[in-house]
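Supplementary Methods. Inverse-folding protocol.

Structures were first reduced to a discrete structure-token string of length 275. This string, shown here, constituted the complete conditioning input.
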């Protein structure tokens, strides 16, 4: 049995390939990380090599000290993950100060974890805290229609959330807390990581203007499903806006309130404003 037969590694590879097939990962676009469970670490330990080469994360994540992550490599292509995982992805361990990492498996032809590692780890740190450890997946994708909308909708979480909710009845059930927005920023560093992780305190999705989105979830299905639902509703909105600037009819605030009762979700009133 190889490392690619271990369940969580299989799930990671499948999700990377699903994202590729959706068209969200041109070239090396996007990145994925998974916070490995303790019992899963023991399933893959046999594949680790000795490594004392501790590298700077570029930010501090003290609450992730000594945790292990499966992460895509910087500059690696999602389309290659399924055919050569050992070249494209890696397992890293965070040190006991939460400032450094070392690579224990993968990237066997060289390289380093994604340039968005600061955002991934800061998001994991926030999500681990607010979900009592349940959230394990952080996903960054270059979702075409969400990116397109960041050129025509105001970069306001109230407007984005409401417009996306209106595009399909189940949207508010899938992302009842809405979506947050990070205005355009230089990617790949600590500053954008700080802004994104602030959003993750409250939301499971951060839209990066003119760039893509970050989604967080408990497992691969929920996280991929969340990104997929949001991107699909963005696609519908792009189609609607392409046909007309004015919708003839849509789902009304009171209808959202009724939906919330029947589906047992809480929809923040700030998104149910009168238009
Ligand atoms: P990486 O190849 O370093 O993961 O970067 C891709 C990306 O989407 C940056 O935002
Ligand atoms: Zn990106």
């Amino acid at each position: 049995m190889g490392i690619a037969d271990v369940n969580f590694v299989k799930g990671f590879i499948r999700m990377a390939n699903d994202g590729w097939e959706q068209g969200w990962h041109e070239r090396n676009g996007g990145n994925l990380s998974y916070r490995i469970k303790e019992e899963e670490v023991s399933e893959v330990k046999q594949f680790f090599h000795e490594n004392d080469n501790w590298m700077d994360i570029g930010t501090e994540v003290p609450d992730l000290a000594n945790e292990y992550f499966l992460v895509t490599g910087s500059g690696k292509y999602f389309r290659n993950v399924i055919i050569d995982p050992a070249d494209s992805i890696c397992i890293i361990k965070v040190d006991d100060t939460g400032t450094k990492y070392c690579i224990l498996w993968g990237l066997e032809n060289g390289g380093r974890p994604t340039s968005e590692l600061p955002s991934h780890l800061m998001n994991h740190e926030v999500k681990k805290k607010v979900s009592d450890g349940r959230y394990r997946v952080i996903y960054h994708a270059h979702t075409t229609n969400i990116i397109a909308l960041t050129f025509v909708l105001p970069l306001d979480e109230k407007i984005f959330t409401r417009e996306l909710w209106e595009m399909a009845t189940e949207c508010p059930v899938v992302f009842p807390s809405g979506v947050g927005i990070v205005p355009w920023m230089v990617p790949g560093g600590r500053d954008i990581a700080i802004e994104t992780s602030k959003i993750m305190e409250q939301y499971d999705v951060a839209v990066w203007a003119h760039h893509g989105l970050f989604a967080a979830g408990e497992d691969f299905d929920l996280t991929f499903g969340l990104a997929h639902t949001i991107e699909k509703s963005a696609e519908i909105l792009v189609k609607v806006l392409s046909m007309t600037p004015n919708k003839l009819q849509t789902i009304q605030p009171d209808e959202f309130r009724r939906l919330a009762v029947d589906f047992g979700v809480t929809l923040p009133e700030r998104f149910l404003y009168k238009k």
